[in-house]
């Protein structure tokens, strides 16, 4: 279990308690901060109710600010700390400051303060909403997750896995039976040895038993050996089958869930995190089902069974045998931790040699050009020598420690030998009993080494399980409305006071009001990062607006059935992603079930047919990773073919021709012109000449619409658009 | 070494006590009055005059060019968006009030507690948990991908970044007490 981190929770609770008490009603949201203006640690908190903000430290006065008087509220990121600043009556103030622990909370606070400032309403927000670590134990959440690996309710988690186990209940129960059988047989074996010895091989007094019994016992031994070979094999095959199936089902469930999530939900996490959950976490789950759980069962059953039998036979001896076990488990635990630490060092050293090699050979041209070969080989020598030193030391340690560890493992046998040996000399116990107890000892001591690590593996599995189910339980945030509309789109788009921000404290788009009518071609102009692509992402409803609304044909985007909406919107992006597969499958991707004729027509329309037919394999040419490399213009034409095939009512072009040379651009422009006729088109372009056909131009600046109108109107305005056009004309003159 | 003609093409605007008068607002934000070429307020402004004039740049921000190697030289003075007004070649050029203002703001911008002692260091599932004594008192924090998040800025100097993005510094790892060193040694 991870060690607890100090959270100072009670101190903060006290401060927030003061803030809460200073309001008449419970505040809408609260936040914590922990640095003074001079970067000394304090315990601070604040809260907002209505338009009033109260803020204080543990012993300072409560400061009250009216939020509507706060202008330019900003989150300022420093290095290792952050602050919130605002302006009132032209004077800049710092509201509070914190180290990075509360950075996310401060960002959200700024967003909320801004919302209050601009009169936008939102509900009460839970106090733990912004936490990046578990409030109970201070354990940091894994990125993109909100379950504490420490405090996750294990029982609840195991309950959640049950539905996945249900289809395989029969097999699971059968393997459980096998478990009991194997354990029983295992325990029975030493008892037979005892009988053979005492009744036949070393008979003290009286005559040996009948011959037939002897053969029976030998046969039983053989039978047991056979059973012990077959039963565990069956059990393991069964478990592997069930484990694999369950993990595949789990994987599918996670994958489906990710596909269903909105882009906002997905972008909360990096692609890597999602891949980790689909592959690694489900793998850990499979290992849990296939190895950890069976091990726990096996070791537990054997231990309990053997101890019980031994206890009934001779309780004194049993205690003597069991006594050293906790110490041996502890010893192996520490030994493993120790070995892990020394080998980690070796591993780090080795990987640094590898990365050094990778670095040098990737940059071999630079090394050659600057003539630094000698310097590089010195660097390598040094790193290689370090690895050699560490590995020498580690091998020495390993070979010195392990023999002792194994010696200690044998300690139980010596205890039995001593105790039972004495009894044999006394005549109270037999040789057969000695052999039997020796057998029991090896049954118990065998798995001791593994037992030391079961708790750790168990905890690890629980963490993965918690992460998987967190994702599975997540509610989609771009949800279909309860009565989603599914209708043919005409193409009238209206932005009504639309606001949007990806991250929490900054609106990327502010107060966007614009009407786009059917058949219009609208150009969006502005510098990079101004929100152009965001605007079109909103039209495709990859994200939902944070405030205001966007409607198509008078129906709010959020009321459309998502699939219905997206199937009628076509997109051509600057960077076209081609999936692994043929050109044909890449174009047909847009419209499953289309005919080859459709695809060829679409390609002809997008001027792609010509170059495709020049490829040796035509439409069957493999593209994407490992496939044929296509040029930017060729990919672009495939993308346009894709868009055409869909026959979209609304067409979105995001820098569709930006990375092309003039001739290709002309070709693609022509293809696009054919496509845009009669359709509502929204186009983004840096090269303003591409937008000459636009019926309306929108100039974005700092997330707001700065200018709107036709080309002529905007030129006449003489503002930003005019200056941009002039600047570009000069550039093109220079090129000539 | 002969003079590098190449580099002469670019001129760095240095801020010195002679051409830069730092002052503070009532709320303690650093501002400067500087004698430098006219600062363009708009990216569409096409005027280009190299003639220095006195101008009040109001609020400024500082950014160290060599935060590890040489924290007090080459400090960039910028506007809110990081556009550079000029460079302070060495903090030592300034004294008195100007220097106080710059130092105070640098202290406010760069918050890096210095680790003096490591009480405990445990690793679980890719996260390491630290209990330390720093110049800001006892602090506990967690790190992810620990080996990678300990930057060796020189042979003995370390900068640690925790899961939240906080930075901690160990100026000389060899100078740590033996027990502390043994704990961190694994990651070196």
Description:
The complex is a heterodimer of chains A (736) and B (188). Chain A has 736 residues and is of the alpha+beta class. Chain A is built from 24 helices and 19 strands. With 188 residues, chain B is an alpha+beta fold. Chain B folds into 2 domains: 3-109, no CATH class; 115-187, no CATH class. In chain B, the strands form 4 sheets. In chain B, strands 1-2-3 form a 3-stranded antiparallel sheet, covered by helices on one side. The two termini of chain B are 37 Å apart. Classes of the chains: A alpha+beta (736), B alpha+beta (188). Chains A and B meet through strand 7, helix 9, helix 15 and helix 24 of A and helix 2, strand 7, strand 8 and strand 9 of B.
In short:
With about 725 residues, chain A is α+β, with helices and mostly antiparallel strands. Helix content of chain A is about 55%, strand content about 15%.
Q: Numbering strands along the chain, what is their spatial order in the largest sheet of chain A?
A: 13-16-17-10-18-19
Q: What oligomeric state is this?
A: heterodimer
> Termini of chain B, distance in Å?
37 Å
Distance between the termini of chain A: 69 Å
Shape of chain B: elongated
Largest interface: A-B, 40 and 39 residues
How many individual helices of chain A?
24
Categorize the overall geometry of chain A.
elongated
Could you tell me the radius of gyration of chain B in angstroms? 21 Å
Number of discrete helical segments of chain B: 4
Helix-strand makeup class of chain B = alpha+beta
Contiguous low-pLDDT stretches of chain B (5 residues minimum) are none
- Strand content of chain A is 5-15%
- Mean pLDDT of chain B equals 86
Question: What percentage of residues of chain A falls in helices of 4 or more residues?
Answer: 55-70%
Tally the beta strands of chain B. 12
The strands making up the biggest β-sheet of chain B line up spatially as 1-2-3
Radius of gyration of chain A: 36 Å
Order of helices and strands of chain B: HEEEEEEHEEEHEEEH
Report the β-strand fraction of chain B as a percent range: 35-45%
Largest sheet properties of chain A: 6 strands, mixed
């Amino acid at each position: 279990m991870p060690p607890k981190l100090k959270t100072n929770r009670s101190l903060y609770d006290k401060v927030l308690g003061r803030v809460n008490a200073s309001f008449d009603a419970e505040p809408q949201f609260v936040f914590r901060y922990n640095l003074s203006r001079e970067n000394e640690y304090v315990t601070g908190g604040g809260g907002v109710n209505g338009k009033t903000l109260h803020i204080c430290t543990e012993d300072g006065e409560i400061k009250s600010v009216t939020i509507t008087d706060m202008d330019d509220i900003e989150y300022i990121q420093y290095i290792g700390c952050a602050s919130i600043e605002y302006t009132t009556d032209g004077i800049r103030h710092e509201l509070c400051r914190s180290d990075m622990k509360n950075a996310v909370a401060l960002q959200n606070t700024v967003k909320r303060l801004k919302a209050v400032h601009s009169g936008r309403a939102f509900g009460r927000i839970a106090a733990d909403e912004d936490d990046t670590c578990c409030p109970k134990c201070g354990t940091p959440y894994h990125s993109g997750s909100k379950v504490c690996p420490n405090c996750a309710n294990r029982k609840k988690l195991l309950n959640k896995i049950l539905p996945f186990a249900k289809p395989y209940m029969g097999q699971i129960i059968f393997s459980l039976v096998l478990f009991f059988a194997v354990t029983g047989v295992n325990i029975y074996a030493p008892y037979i040895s005892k009988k053979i010895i005492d009744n036949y091989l070393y008979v003290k007094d009286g005559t040996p038993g009948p011959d037939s019994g002897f053969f029976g016992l030998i046969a039983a031994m053989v039978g047991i050996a056979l059973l012990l070979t077959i039963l565990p094999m069956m059990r393991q095959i069964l478990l592997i089958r069930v484990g694999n199936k369950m993990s595949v089902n789990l994987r599918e469930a996670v994958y489906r869930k990710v596909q269903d999530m909105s882009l906002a939900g997905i972008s909360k996490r990096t692609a890597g995190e999602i891949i980790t959950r689909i592959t690694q976490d489900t793998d850990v789950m499979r290992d849990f089902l296939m190895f950890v759980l069976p091990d726990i069962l096996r070791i537990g059953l054997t231990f309990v069974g053997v101890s019980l039998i031994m206890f009934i036979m001779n309780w004194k001896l049993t205690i003597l045998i069991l006594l050293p076990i906790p110490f041996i488990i502890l010893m192996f635990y520490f030994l493993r931790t120790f070995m892990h630490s020394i080998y980690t060092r070796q591993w780090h050293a080795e990987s640094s040699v590898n990365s050094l090699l990778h670095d040098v050979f990737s940059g071999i041209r630079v090394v050659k050009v600057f003539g630094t070969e000698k310097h590089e080989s010195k660097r390598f020598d040094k790193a290689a020598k370090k690895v050699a030193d560490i590995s020498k030391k580690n091998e020495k340690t390993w070979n010195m420690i392990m023999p002792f560890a194994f010696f200690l493992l044998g300690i139980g046998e010596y205890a039995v030998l001593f105790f039972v040996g004495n009894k044999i000399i006394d005549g109270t116990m037999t040789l057969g009993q000695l052999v039997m107890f020796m057998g029991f000892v090896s049954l118990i001591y065998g798995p001791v080494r593994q037992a030391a690590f079961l708790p750790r593996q168990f905890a690890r599995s629980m963490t993965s399980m918690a992460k998987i189910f967190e994702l599975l339980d997540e509610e989609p945030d771009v949800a279909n409305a309860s009565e989603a509309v599914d209708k043919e789109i005409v193409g009238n788009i209206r932005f009504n006071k639309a606001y949007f921000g990806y991250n929490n404290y900054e609106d990327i788009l502010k107060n966007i009001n614009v009407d786009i009518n059917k058949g219009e071609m609208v150009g969006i102009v502005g510098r990079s990062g101004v929100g152009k692509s965001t605007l079109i992402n909103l039209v495709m409803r990859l994200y939902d607006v944070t405030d205001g609304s966007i409607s198509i044909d008078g129906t709010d985007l959020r009321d459309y059935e998502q699939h219905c909406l997206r199937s009628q919107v076509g997109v051509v992006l600057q960077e076209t992603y081609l999936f692994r597969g043929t050109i044909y499958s890449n174009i047909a991707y847009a419209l499953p079930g289309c005919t080859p004729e459709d695809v060829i027509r679409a390609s002809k329309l997008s001027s792609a047919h010509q170059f495709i037919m020049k490829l040796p394999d035509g439409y069957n040419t493999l593209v994407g990773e490992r496939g044929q490399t296509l040029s930017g213009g060729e990919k672009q034409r495939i993308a346009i073919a894709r868009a055409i095939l869909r026959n979209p009512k609304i067409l979105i072009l995001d820098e569709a021709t930006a990375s092309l040379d003039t001739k290709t651009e002309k070709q693609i422009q022509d293809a696009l012109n054919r496509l845009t006729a009669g359709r509502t088109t929204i186009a983004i372009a840096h090269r303003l000449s591409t937008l000459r056909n636009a019926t309306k131009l929108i100039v974005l600046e700092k997330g707001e619409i700065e200018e709107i109108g036709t080309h002529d109107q905007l030129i006449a305005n003489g503002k930003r658009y005019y200056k941009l056009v002039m600047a570009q004309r000069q550039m093109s003159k220079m090129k000539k | 070494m002969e003079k590098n003609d190449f580099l002469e093409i670019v001129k760095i605007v240095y801020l010195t006590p002679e051409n830069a008068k730092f002052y503070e607002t009532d709320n303690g934000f650093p501002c400067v009055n500087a004698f430098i070429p006219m600062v363009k307020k708009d990216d569409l402004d096409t005027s280009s005059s190299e003639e220095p004039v006195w101008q009040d740049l109001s609020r400024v921000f500082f950014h160290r060019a060599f935060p590890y190697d040489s924290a007090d030289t080459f400090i960039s003075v910028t506007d809110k968006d990081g556009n550079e007004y000029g460079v302070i070649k060495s903090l030592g050029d300034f004294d008195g009030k100007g220097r106080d203002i710059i130092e105070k703001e640098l202290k406010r911008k760069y918050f890096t507690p210095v680790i003096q002692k490591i009480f405990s260091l445990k690793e679980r599932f890719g996260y390491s948990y630290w209990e330390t004594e720093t110049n800001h008192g006892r602090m506990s924090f967690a790190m992810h991908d620990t080996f990678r998040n300990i930057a060796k800025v020189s042979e003995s100097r370390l900068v640690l970044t925790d899961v939240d993005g906080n930075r901690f510094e160990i100026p000389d790892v060899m100078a740590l007490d033996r027990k502390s060193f043994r704990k961190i040694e694994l990651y070196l």
